[in-house]
Design goal:
With 171 residues, this protein is an alpha+beta fold. The chain contains four helices and four strands. The chain starts with a helix and ends with a helix.
Length: 171
């Protein structure tokens, strides 16, 4: 049992560190290669690289908070949530897809918190527009959080469908 928990911890840490590394490497590259507010069209207006420092959370939410409240709401509380999430996935029985998903969320969350602590802002550098879909400017940490959330949602839907099939078969 302890060997399984150790493997689970190591696997989760590898996924977390991979997501965090991808985030930090791409943000550093964006800071070095793209001037502030410069717009580089990669695929016409559909995919644009830029360099924006976000002092708030998603979509600049909370950017007008006092410095003290920013520390509480954008650094301390999210870090506590991520810590509790990590403790949950290593102590509880979590499916492999959800272990991966939660690890993605934790890695992405740490990436943005790291920026807030180190730079007092988060570097965002990608923008996507596809038909009616328009994103805000985002980074790889945001991608990790969204992918992790979608994986949890997908796993929940698939689990529910499987349960319904089992109920129908047993009737």
């Amino acid at each position: 049992m302890k060997a399984n928990r150790l493997i689970k911890i190591i696997f989760s840490l590898v996924v977390i560190v991979s997501n965090l590394s991808c985030d930090q490497i791409t943000k550093e590259k964006a800071r070095e290669e793209i001037s502030k507010n410069e717009k580089i069209q990669v695929i016409e207006d559909n995919f644009i690289l830029t360099n924006v420092e976000n002092t708030g959370a998603a979509m600049s939410l909370g950017e007008n908070l006092s410095p003290e409240l920013k520390i509480v709401f954008l650094q301390i509380l999210p870090l506590l949530v991520l810590l509790l999430m990590f403790l949950y996935i290593i102590k509880e029985k979590v499916s492999k897809p959800n272990l991966i998903a939660f690890s993605f969320i934790i890695g992405g969350g740490i990436g943005n918190i790291y920026d807030r602590i180190l730079y007092n802002s988060v570097t965002d550098f990608m923008y996507v527009e596809f038909g009616e879909l328009h994103t805000g400017i985002f980074n790889m940490a945001d991608v990790s959080v969204v992918v992790g959330t979608l994986l949890i949602l997908l796993n929940s839907i698939l689990s529910e469908l499987k349960m319904r099939q089992l109920k129908n078969v047993s009737m």
